[in-house]
Amino acid sequence: MQFELCGLDEAAVAAVLARHDASGDAAAYRERTGGNPFFLDELLREEAELGAGSAPPPGVREVIGRRIARLPAPAHGVLQEGAAQGLEFEPLVLTTAERVLDGLDAAVGAGLVTAVGGGRYAFAHALIAETVLAEMSSARRAGLHLRIAEVLAESGRPRAGEIAKHVRAAGPLAPPERLVAAELTAAREAQEMLSYADAAAHYEAALAALESARGQQEVHSRAEILLALGAARDRAGARAKAREAFATVVGIARDTRDPVLLARAALGHGGVGVLVAAPDASVTQTLEEALDRLPRHERALAARLQARLAIELYYPDRAGAETLSAQAVEDARAADDPAALAAALNARRVACWTPELIEERLDAATEMIEAAEAAHDREGVLQGRNWRVVDLMELGYRGPLEVEIDAYQELADAVGLAHYRWYVPMWRSALAQLEAAGATRESCATRRSSSPPRPRTRWRRGWCARNTTARSRSAGPTTRSTATASQRWPPPRPSHGRG
User: Fold this and answer.
1) Each residue of 459-492: pLDDT tens digit?
2) Nearest alpha carbon to residue 472 among 362, 373, 368
3) What burial letters (b/e) apply to 434-465, b meaning 16+ CB within 10 Å?
4) Edge-to-edge strands of the sheet including 88-89?
5) Global pTM value
6) From 2.60.40, 1.10.3470, 1.25.40, 2.170.120, which CATH number describes the 279-436+477-499 domain?
7) Nearest in space to 404 (alpha carbons), one of 458, 474, 332, 477
8) H/E element holding 449?
9) DSSP letter at 71?
10) What is the pLDDT of residues 205-231, one digit of tens each?
């Protein structure tokens, strides 16, 4: 008769921890030791003497080492390559396919690794992988990481994050230029997957690899990485850290007397999206400085600076905001730059935020969507649709409003930033409240009058009587010609100059 022995369960591991007066997560200890009572006891004794996070205890390494020593040479290679990848790994052909398969068969047969599906394998418990790594020399580990990075790169699959991890682990064997390139590629891949926190971490690692570099080329490379880092942090919700990165670029731009770099840093310092609030002196001063230093031929960049400054000045200087936004639209049109035009129209929409300019606001938002779509700027499209929702709600056009909210939600879900997604439930809640209020008023009016109730008008009585021209213009989500927008804004030349 045979009995298959398994490791301690989580409750039993917790009891062993209590016996050792050790604090910690029982599940984590079970995962690391596989529930092996000997491994668990040895590990807890080692941690009591040397502290948590120590290498596998000598007794554990000896037991595991004897099991590995009995395996054929191909299994040693497979275990080392797997341990370099982590607790779960994909067998890579670093030598020959035959040796890899032979090694896997031996390791699985010894119970050291197990198949987990999808062509991947996992160590029976973490102490096996830790022991394999501890038995390798640092040079062997570094060379193995570098070779794994090469094989992953040759696969052609989007695995830039894994590649960067192995290039980083290769230490001095990987030239700094290679590490910087790997981290930047991984950062861009993370951004495409909307993982902005991971992207920021890769940009930070790229900056660390440039610390020993000297010269003008390295300074500008550092500035470019810092700009990307600031943008990634901003989208990850780390606004304070984002501003630190942009402020550093502002300092580099001043030191190198680079007006274009200063303008880009000033725009990043202003942040993502629109926050109409009291101005931040550090933001407005940097924007004004960048605008004054910018060469006259940089009209697209000037339009973006003027647009951002107009938004910042909305409360303290409404007239200045209107002038700057009008000039931003003019410069963006002259530069034939759709991204700059989208930014300028965004500012124009903010500057016109008064009840009597509702038609102009709606026009600005509609053309902003068109410009942002031409620039492949999804966040610009979202902001334009946001403005249209606000304006259509104010006008009382329920049908077009519902279409606009649906279009906004679809794109916001695709972009995946919480900064944009929270608007939809707020809008739908507001609509529900308006419907409920209208139903309550109608019910009260019906009870007070013996005559039949009049046809119900939604939200306010005046919206159905709006003129036909305004109604037809508002009905389509984005249909309006650029020429019409040009006629609506003959922007005057502002007094705010540029150097």
Assistant:
1) 333 332 333 333 333 334 343 333 333 333 333 3
2) 362
3) beeeeeeeeeeeeeeeeeeeeeeeebeeeeee
4) 88-89, 120-123, 113-117
5) 0.73
6) 1.25.40
7) 477
8) none
9) S
10) 999 998 765 544 578 899 999 999 999
